[in-house]
Amino acid sequence: MSFPTQRLRRTRRREALRRMVKETKLSADDLIFPMFVVHGNNIKNEIKSLPGNYHLSIDNLIKEAEEIVKLKIPAVILFGLPASKDEVGSEAYASDGIVQQAVRALKSEMPDLIVITDVCLCEYTTHGHCGIVENGYIVNDLTLELIAKTALSHAEAGSDIVAPAGMMDGSVQAIRKALDEKGFHETLIMSYSAKYASNLYAPFFRNGTRSIATFGDKKSYQMDYANTHEALREVALDIEEGADIVMVKPALPYLDIIYRVKQKFGVPVAAYNVSGEYAMIKAAGEKGWINADEVMMEVLTCIKRGSADIIITYFAKQAAGLLLDADRQR
Question: Does the annotation count 304 as an active-site position?
């Protein structure tokens, strides 16, 4: 039928009608909150480039996690800042490493909170790269041994999901083998399957984990942002190797990748709404150029509309709070 029989504005006229026909609904269940844990006590230092996010000692990590549970956010992902660094990232896989300590504390206090651990070496190495360096090159297979060792140490501490982030070939297979051999058959793997070499990570690396590479860049292992088919190949390999959840990172400039991954494979897809995406919205909001809350909710809803089942975002607490407020007002 043609105009005026079909008037699509009819369902937009009132707010209640708009709610009834809304195609994509964001929920706190969709969100994962990243947390940065440090050694020490009574530490809560705001991260300069990620306002509203903090470096937390374990005592304050617990307090923050209690708030997350109250907001009905189901999961957190942990990043650790070590007491010291070395060439092989020893604290990444130490049984008393900061992440391992944090996992044990969280699972003791809040056993129902899903704890995800980032499995990478860059926070722990003096050179800031995600693997073992020989002659200026990141050596894939030697790195796999340490990645698997790190994931196993996280599982032993109680991590529900391990998330290999380094984009090393074969990392999912190496981790799955290490976990299964030690009886951790139920520990999930959420792989950073399509992780692009993005300029949008700068606030995370510079201030969040303080893991800036001391030489070169990460383009020899993270993906070229011009590529699509390569992302699908990466995802296919990770699924074959045993990944339970696959991730696309960053999120907003890569909605096409998120959509194609979901359509092609039909597996749970996570999207990482990264630090640069967060920082731009926060900065523009502080200058009064945009309504930051409204833009935040638009962005997160659109990431979900793009086919993401899970959204890792520094906005998780803020968004979940607004969602709870909206529910109470109805």
Answer: no
Tell me how far apart the 2 most distant CA atoms of the chain are, in Å: 71
Instruction: State the pLDDT at residue 56.
Output: 97
Its sign, for the CA torsion 261, 198, 191, 304, is: negative
Report the distance separating Cα 68 and Cα 312, nearest Å. Answer: 14
Q: At what angle do helices 292-305 and 316-329 cross, to 10 degrees?
A: 100
Q: Which of 69, 70, 64, 57 is nearest to 102 (CA)?
A: 57
- Between 220 and 24, whose confidence is greater? 24
- Count CB-CB contacts under 10 A for residue 76: 25
- Among the listed ranges 17-31, 116-130, 220-234, which one has the minimum average pLDDT value? 116-130
Name the band, by pLDDT with cuts 50, 70 and 90, for residue 221: confident
Q: Is 56 helix (H, G, I), strand (E, B) or coil?
A: strand
Domain locations in the chain?
24-329
**Rounded Cα distance, 80 and 102, in Å:** 9
CB 92 within 8 A of CB 123: yes
**Contact in structure between 61 and 102 (CB atoms under 8 Å):** yes
195 has catalytic annotation: yes
Residue among 85, 218, 249, 304 flagged as catalytic: 249
Of the residues 25, 63, 72, 195, which is catalytic?
A: 195
pTM: 0.94
Q: What is the pLDDT of residue 102?
A: 98
Q: CA dist 27 to 116, 166, 225, 237, 252, Å?
A: 19, 29, 29, 30, 18
Fold observed for domain 24-329: TIM Barrel (3.20.20)
Residue 6 confidence (pLDDT) above 90:
no
Residue with tokens 């909150």: 33
CA-CA distance, 216 to 67, in Å (whole number)? 40
